[in-house]
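Worked example 3 (structure in, sequence out).
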């Protein structure tokens, strides 16, 4: 099943090379294409949009998308990045625009991030970057953010207080 999904992504041009529709003058690359992190950490990658055409490209829109390779894992891209859409100025022939994308890993597993470039004044399909594979390790900890002493200490303090109160009442 996983092979079918990977094959579909390769056919879509998301995993290999730089994707662009036939005849498109805009090409998108991504670097790095593989990242590894832990839940709660922020990682970053860049995309470079290049106008390989002979004429200027009008204003472009770059949009970050994130999906999970595992169909059982729900992904809300807005949780991963609050800045997913960028409006770019016109790109002259041979011109490039490099964008930095920061994403916060909110779930464990393997995810793919890619950037789609849309031409708002055109009927051409979007141009997508290659997928950036983000492997997020689950983090298991008993002391998440220093909460363990508080979680043990408060009930213990209450038990000591109640015990002391009972001893005083019996003694009186």
């Amino acid at each position: 099943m996983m092979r079918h999904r990977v094959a579909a992504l390769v056919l879509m041009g998301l995993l290999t090379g730089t994707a662009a529709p036939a005849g498109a003058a805009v090409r998108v690359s991504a670097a790095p294409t593989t990242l590894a992190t832990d839940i709660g950490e922020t990682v970053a990658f860049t995309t470079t949009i290049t106008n390989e055409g002979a004429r200027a490209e009008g204003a472009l829109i770059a949009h970050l998308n994130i999906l999970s390779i595992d169909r059982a894992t729900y992904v809300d891209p807005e949780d991963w990045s609050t800045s997913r859409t960028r409006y770019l100025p016109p790109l002259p022939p041979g011109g490039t625009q490099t964008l930095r994308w920061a994403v916060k890993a909110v779930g464990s597993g393997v995810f793919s991030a890619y950037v789609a470039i849309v031409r708002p004044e055109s009927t051409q399909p979007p141009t997508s970057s290659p997928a950036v594979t983000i492997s997020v390790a689950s983090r298991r900890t008993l002391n998440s953010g220093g909460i363990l002493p508080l979680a043990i200490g408060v009930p213990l303090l209450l038990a000591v207080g109640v015990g002391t109160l009972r001893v005083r009442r019996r003694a009186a």
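Notes: DSSP finds three helices and nine strands in the chain. The longest helix spans residues 147-171.
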